[in-house]
Amino acid sequence: MRIDRRTFARMNRRELLKMTPLIALGAFAVPPARAALLSAGERFNGWAASLWYRSGHRAATYPDSAVAPLKRFPYNYYDVLDPEIDTDKWRLKVGGLVKRPGEYTLAQIQSVPKVRQNTRHVCVEGWDVIGNFGGARIGDFLKFVGADPSARFIYVECADNYYESLDMACAMQPNSLLCYEMYGEPLLPGHGAPLRLLLPTKIGYKSAKYLTSLEVTNVVRRWGYWEDQGYPWYYSL
Amino acid sequence: MNAGGLKLDVVETEDRSNNAVRAAYEHPAVIRWCHWLLGVSILVLIFSGWQIFWAFPGFGPKIPQRDFIHLPRALMLGGWLAGGLQWHFTFIWIFLFTGVVYLIYQAASGRYRMLLFTPSDLPGVWPMVRHYFLFGPKPPQTQPYNPLQKLAYTGAVVLGVLAALTGMAIYNPNQFSLLTAMMGGFRWARVWHFAVMSAFLAFIAGHLVMVILHGWSNFISMITGWKRGPEYL
Predict the structure, then answer these.
(1) Confidence band, pLDDT 50/70/90 cuts, at residue B3
(2) How far apart are the first and last CA of chain A?
(3) Residues B40 and B120 occupy one common structural domain
(4) Rounded to whole angstroms, how far apart are CA atoms A45 and A123?
(5) By C-alpha distance, which of A150, A163, A143, A177 is closest to A220?
(6) What is the pLDDT of residues B16-70, one digit of tens each?
(7) All domains of chain A, ordered by start, with CATH?
(8) Which residue range(s) make up the domain with B119?
(9) End-to-end CA distance of chain B
(10) Helices B29-54 and B81-109: angle between axes, nearest 10 degrees
(11) pLDDT tens figures, A156-195
(12) What is the mean pLDDT of residues A44-51?
């Protein structure tokens, strides 16, 4: 079949028109649209990860021989390395959807069965380290204070003005700890003394240090120190 | 035109001097969409990946830190780590969705027969390599894709699958613990992910050189679908 030049050109133009939807990608070049699209994309990514997150699935644990020495356990901090907490006067303020709100001493938190585990801590920067951690399961502590198990979030604030929130599925995960020990010793100031979150199934910055308050809630007003600047909120591992 | 048992639409038309010229409809619209969406998302994933890698450009422990390579900052996408992550985590989904559509379409339409590298293509690879790199004679082209092209494009699909798997192993080493373990653990998964990125760079470089060498009508065929005067007709 012979097709003259003009007809062939018309066929080509029609095919070219079919490609116009690709222009939509140009939205990523327009700053306001780009910001909205990337933030939506990042939230979609977190939501997708929440679909395959298994609250009952244990985090990988490692033999003692795989644990990094304490002096090679890095710490990142955003403001001060040591917020100079007076551990004798320190209390964890617990509030929100709990039957027994109030101020809890470290001894009360330590009365919840202690768990010790060698787990991997993964920093958003890309490095990772295996450490030895001791503390109370967050799930056990929530039972201890009579938290509403149907609540959606845990929100914590810290002595260095850091703050963080996490979903209940992660809080109930058996490796998620209210951590007060590393390598069998009380936490060092640089590692979040006297109490920190230790969440092996979340990216590092979710494991907030120097906890001062913990709230069980369905409404989060602030997502987290880094999250409110553009870092992912969900970020499970 | 019969390409590996697949029929391509062929028409006879004319060039500017009214000489008869044949044209083949090589790339249906779905393939063209997929090509450009995958191309853009792979570039975004590479350069946002460089931004992410910049935060810790090594594969060992943090203490002591040994940097592996410092990639050019000018090509990084996202401005800072959080920006790089946002680009990466958004375009992962464009890449995955388009990749799945591409593979389903290739399988359902039977077009994969034109592109998929099979053992019977093996003897044809060396003559093409000799032609391109050692000024050897050009083997006659009877199919839309020669054995070396089939190897490259099949390889690119394999790279895409490996990029997704190594990425999953880094992103969720606990949820996909088996996958991460198969790769030798979290740190090795980062190495493999970086290696797949490097292989993609090599593929893209080769692909672009070939596109330039093969001229305008070859390039246009990935926009309108029609290739004027293909060698194999």
Answers:
(1) low
(2) 59
(3) no
(4) 18
(5) A163
(6) 888 889 999 999 999 999 999 999 999 999 999 999 999 999 999 999 999 999 9
(7) 1-52 (no CATH), 57-229 (3.90.420.10)
(8) 111-137+146-213
(9) 8
(10) 150
(11) 999 999 999 999 999 999 999 999 999 999 999 889 999 9
(12) 97
Does residue B220 lie within any of the structural domains? no
Query: Quick check: bond before A74 cis, omega within 30?
Result: no
The answer to whether residue B106 is domain-embedded is no
* Same domain (yes/no): B52, B92: yes
Chain-centre distance for alpha carbon B169: 21
A51 touches chain B (CB under 8 A): no
Rounded to the nearest angstrom, the minimum Cα separation between B36 and chain A is 8
**Cβ within 8 Å, pair A45-B93:** yes
Residue A41 has its nearest CB partner, among B81, B89, B223, at B89
pLDDT tens column, B100-144: 999 999 999 999 999 999 999 999 999 999 998 888 888 888 888
* Same domain (yes/no): B150, B209: yes
DSSP H helices, chain B, are 29-54, 81-109, 112-115, 122-134, 147-171, 177-182, 186-213, 216-224
pLDDT tens, residue by residue, A63-121: 999 999 999 999 876 667 778 888 889 999 999 999 999 999 999 999 999 999 999 99
Q: Is residue B45 part of a domain?
A: yes
Interhelix angle B216-224/A5-17, nearest 10 degrees = 60
Same domain, B153 and B88: no
Work out how many CB contacts closer than 8 A connect A with B.
Answer: 138
Say if residue B90 is in the same domain as residue B120: no
Q: Are B82 and A57 inside 8 Å of each other by CB?
A: no
Does residue B133 sit in the same domain as residue B195?
Answer: yes
Flag whether B157 is in a domain.
yes
Contact flag A39-B53 (C-beta cutoff 8 Å): no
Q: Is there a single domain that holds both residue B151 and residue B92?
A: no
Partner residue opposite A8 with nearest CB, options B23, B37, B62: B23
> What domain count does chain B have?
2
B178 and B130 in a single domain? The answer is yes
Residues of chain A positioned with their CB less than 8 A from the CB of B29: 15, 18-19
